[in-house]
User: What shape does this take?
Amino acid sequence: MKITVTVNGRRYTDEVAPDLMLLDYLRGKGCLSVKRGCETSNCGLCTVHLDGKPILSCSVLAVRADGHVVTTLEGLQQEAAEFGAFLADEGGEQCGFCSPGFVMNVLAMERELQNPTEEEILEYLAGNLCRCTGYQSQMRAIQQYLARKKEVE
Assistant: This one.
């Protein structure tokens, strides 16, 4: 099947197998931040933005992205680095394996929710699994990041 997808600002037209997962398509385009974790849509490691909304690329066929815009962490380097600094300051990155998907969800949440409560943050990020941090350092980083963004506005 022929698809045309814009990935991180670059337009691609490719012939793909009908069963190719978006995760594999993106990794084939050099987007190595998109990681394979559980392959059951439970861990969040494969999170990307499709037309600005977070999705799990391990459970979406590449053909479903036809005509759409896909953004990976590689396409959000400045924003990711800004939040990443808060994450590192709080010790919330630990091994870093889950960080790309986690960062993608935090950046989407920032755009979608205005002044989220701790409960809203936890609900929004419920699909991101991390085996290293215990989540408290991540929550502190998110709250500090959002507070800083609010000050700047």
